[in-house]
Structures are given as structure tokens and as C-alpha cells.
Amino acid sequence: MFVSLVVVTVFMSALLLVSAGAKSLRTRHITEQMSTLGVPQGMMGFLIGAQIAGAAGVIAGLWWGPVGIAAAIGLTLYFAGAVAFHLRVGDRKGASPAAVLTLASVALAVLRAATL
User: Fold this and answer.
1) Alpha carbon distance 98, 62 (integer Å)
2) pTM score above 0.90
3) Is residue 23 within 8 Å of residue 41, measured between CB atoms?
């Protein structure tokens, strides 16, 4: 089961870092999407930081379980918020990836708790 945890952790961390990098570049696609969702530009730094902290937390959690569980719970809340923001503006297509990442974050928490 620990191997599954490592695979999901590495995948999630890579995805979070790529997403944080894209947000930090503030490409037109990202800024338009955030504007459509009603996310203020001033929140971008917080979102980037949350993604980087989440990636670092789940990686650190491979060595210290409680940190990994806390990070996975934080990511679950982060992505559940993303689902809510997408659904609030009627963007069901954009809500789907966020919902999958919410479930992946829950899986990370469960896997880490199971391997303590």
C-alpha cells in the first residue's frame, strides 16, 4: 500500500507544481479563467503558495505521516473550493478536473492514514 501512496503523492505533487508554475506566469488563459470564476488577482499569490505548500506537505508526509495527512486534508479543502467556484458560475466542464483532484486528495489522506 505504501507504493500506491508514493505513486499518488508524486503524481499529485508534480501536478500541483505545474499548476502553481502556470499561475505564477499569469498567462492569458489563467487570468481569464480566474476572472471568469471571480477570483481576485490579489488571491493568486495565496493560491500559488497553497499549491506549493500542499506539494511540499504531501512529500514530507512520506516520512512523517501526520504532516502528509494534514497536507492532504488541506488539498481536499483547496480543490473542493475550486469545485464550488466553478459550479457557482455554471462551469461544469471546469468543475470536473477539480472534483477528480478533490477525490485524489481524499485518497492521499486515506492512503497515508492506512500506512501509519
Assistant:
1) 24
2) yes
3) no
